[in-house]
Specification:
Shape: flat
Radius of gyration: 18 Å
Number of helices: 6
Low-confidence stretches: none
CATH topology of the largest domain: Arc Repressor Mutant, subunit A
Distance between the termini: 62 Å
CATH class of the largest domain: Mainly Alpha
Bound molecules: zinc ion
Structural class: alpha+beta
Order of helices and strands: HHHHEEEEHEH
CATH superfamily of the largest domain: Winged helix-like DNA-binding domain superfamily/Winged helix DNA-binding domain
Number of domains: 2
CATH architecture of the largest domain: Orthogonal Bundle
Length: about 140
């Protein structure tokens, strides 16, 4: 049984989804636009935005806010965290057990009923770290 969202998939939407699933760079909308333009030269940025909304609402991609002022899109639907480089902006995936203890302790402290949490890591990617170390050696 194909989910309703897939049945009504237009060709444009299908190509956008394929391009997002292909990369693990977590592209922003304008980067998705660049990716799909190779296959759909006539597509507009507005159409890309609209389809990204529909795809994330149907749960086929994830929409991420990593605090850098733009939405990013992830084709990997498995539970995972993200790590972003403060120098070059590169985003990596972090697969580790969801921190359920954290939710419990926040619930105790705040008396909120915690439903989920958002957690992002920031740091220096291996490449930027190497550059930084080289700089200090010179
Ligand atoms: Zn970096
Ligand atoms: Zn991811």
């Amino acid at each position: 049984m194909i989910p309703a969202s897939k049945r009504r998939m237009t060709l444009q939407r299908k190509i956008i989804l394929e391009e997002i699933e292909k990369v693990n760079a977590h592209p922003a909308a304008d980067e998705v636009y660049e990716l799909v333009r190779g296959r759909l030269p006539k597509i507009s940025l507005g159409t890309v935005y609209r389809n990204l909304e529909i795809l994330s609402e149907s749960g086929l991609i994830r929409k991420l806010d990593l605090g850098d002022g733009q939405w990013r899109f992830d084709g990997n639907l498995k539970d995972h965290y993200h790590v972003q480089c403060i120098r070059c902006g590169r985003i990596g995936d972090v697969f580790c057990k969801p921190c359920e203890d954290l939710e419990e302790s926040v619930q105790e402290k705040t008396e909120f009923e915690i439903l989920s949490h958002r957690l992002d890591f920031v740091g220096l990617c291996p490449e930027c770290k190497r550059k930084e170390e080289q700089q200090w050696q010179d």
